[in-house]
């Protein structure tokens, strides 16, 4: 960890302790189920853990203890992780989560790229020649991820927390390749399984969550192979839930949360005008792909946040009725929301961080120790979007540590306005 990151962490801890003492309340905990929604992010999940490390103790100090965790991809990892720690003191749970993320290494997520890519390229060329060679796998071998998830997360504690009521529900989103619909795998002993959402093409499935469900949710198309889930409830192949539903806000609402915290690595809204009007060079194929990826991951989240805000305003103004989405027939109700992520207008700092790690932290002789990252970086090319794309695969200590600190910083920024709102943190934050 850099000296700057160490100083920032120490300062954040001191401020957190001060806020803890100021924020402790003597009245009973606030009523209402609190849900956490964690968007997909790959290695950027470390940023989300940094956000949670600040928000979780602060929410607990104010009488709000999250009991519903819903996530996609890396957000699914964090959902299962924090659900498994829910029996602990909030500060201890946050620290343990950061310890886990700081221990993650690339070899724990996928096998070395050099032996894998040539075989993938050979299969592709044979397919072009009409040879009967299946192309069902991804470019990367993610079998180590299954082992890591089984060992690093306490699945016993996760299931126990659900049985004891410390957690009401854990849900992860994956995309069913056989239907193209989003499936929400839910483990909850007490909450009724929601009806399918016909408009959004979302199905809900009762599940006893396992590492395979998380791997399915995090199976990035093309890069990671699809994952088969075969149980009494379902049997099929699944890919990353972010393909259709990267920030599963609506499923959290279907699970009955009355307050929701949405955590993402993209801003909750866009600026009204672009920062510049220079045409510059034409976009490369990689830049165009990055735009498609960005739209798929963030646009629906922004739409859902705006819809939630509009419904809240309608109900507070005296409106009544039935929700138009899905088939559950839920009545309109106020769901207080806190969004925690980058500020609108922030140039992709995580992408910039990935570029910095590549260009400085792994330059010279150190590049020989990271041939996989160098190869992936070369395949992407020196495009404007290289850092953004590489940040999803940057499971390196230099990146993880700084991403955590960025998440902690943004969480502190989100909480600052609460000082001027009589402690009310429940509002759509930007």
Which features does this protein show?
single chain, 14 helices, alpha/beta, 430 residues, nine-stranded mixed β-sheet
Please describe what this structure looks like:
There is one protein chain. Helix 11 runs antiparallel to helix 14 (397-415). The longest helix has 32 residues, at 285-316. The chain has helices spanning 3-23, 45-61, 74-84, 90-103, 113-128, 143-152, 155-164, 211-217, 249-254, 285-316, 349-361, 371-380, 386-390, 397-415; strands spanning 34-38, 68-72, 169-176, 182-187, 202-206, 227-230, 235-240, 259-263, 336-340. Strands 1, 2, 3, 4, 5, 6, 7, 8 and 9 form a nine-stranded mixed sheet that branches. The protein contains 14 helices and nine strands.
Question: Could you give a quick summary of the protein structure above?
Answer:
The chain has 430 residues and is of the alpha/beta class. It contains 14 helices and nine strands.
Order of helices and strands: HEHEHHHHHEEEHEEHEHEHHHH
Distance between the termini: 29 Å
Total count of strands? 9
Low-confidence spans: pLDDT under 50, at least 5 residues?
19-29, 321-327
The amount of helix comes to 40-55%
The main pleated sheet reads as:
9 strands, mixed
Q: What structural category arises from helix and sheet content?
A: alpha/beta
Report the mean per-residue pLDDT as an integer: 80
């Amino acid at each position: 960890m850099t000296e700057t990151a160490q100083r920032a962490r120490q300062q954040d801890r001191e401020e957190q302790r001060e806020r803890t003492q100021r924020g402790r309340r003597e009245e009973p905990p606030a009523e209402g189920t609190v849900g956490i929604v964690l968007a997909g992010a790959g290695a950027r999940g470390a940023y989300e853990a940094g956000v949670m490390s600040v928000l979780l103790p602060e929410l607990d100090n104010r009488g709000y203890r999250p009991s519903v965790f819903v996530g996609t991809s890396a957000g699914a990892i964090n959902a299962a992780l924090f659900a498994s720690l829910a029996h602990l003191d909030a500060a201890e749970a946050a620290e343990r989560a950061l310890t886990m993320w700081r221990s993650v290494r690339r070899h724990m997520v996928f096998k070395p790229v050099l032996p894998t890519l040539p075989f993938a390229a050979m299969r592709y060329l044979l397919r072009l020649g009409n040879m009967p060679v299946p192309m069902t796998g991804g470019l990367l071998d993610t079998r180590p991820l299954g082992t890591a998830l089984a060992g690093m997360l306490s699945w016993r504690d996760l299931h126990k927390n659900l049985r004891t009521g410390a957690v009401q529900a854990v849900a992860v989103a994956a995309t069913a390749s056989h239907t193209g619909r989003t499936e929400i795998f839910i483990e909850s002993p007490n909450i009724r399984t929601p009806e399918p959402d016909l408009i959004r093409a979302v199905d809900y499935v009762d599940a006893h969550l396992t590492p395979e469900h998380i791997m399915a949710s995090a199976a990035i198309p093309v890069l990671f192979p699809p994952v088969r889930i075969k149980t009494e409830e379902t049997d099929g192949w699944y890919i990353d839930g972010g393909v259709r539903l990267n920030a599963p806000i609506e499923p959290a609402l279907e699970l009955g949360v009355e307050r929701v915290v949405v955590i993402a690595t993209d801003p909750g809204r866009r600026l009204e005008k672009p920062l510049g009007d220079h045409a510059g060079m034409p976009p490369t194929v990689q830049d165009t792909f990055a735009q498609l990826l960005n739209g798929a991951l963030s646009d629906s989240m922004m739409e859902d946040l705006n819809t939630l805000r509009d419904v809240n305003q309608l109900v507070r103004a005296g409106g009544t009725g039935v929700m138009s989405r899905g088939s559950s027939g839920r009545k309109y109700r106020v769901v207080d929301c806190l969004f925690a992520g980058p500020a609108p207008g922030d140039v992709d700092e995580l992408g910039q961080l990935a570029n910095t790690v590549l260009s400085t932290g792994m330059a010279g002789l150190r590049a020989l120790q990271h041939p996989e990252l160098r190869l992936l970086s070369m395949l992407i090319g020196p495009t404007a979007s290289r850092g953004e794309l590489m940040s999803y695969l940057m499971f390196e200590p230099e990146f993880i540590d700084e991403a955590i600190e960025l998440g902690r910083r943004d969480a502190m920024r989100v909480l600052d306005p609460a000082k001027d709102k009589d402690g009310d943190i429940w509002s759509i934050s930007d």
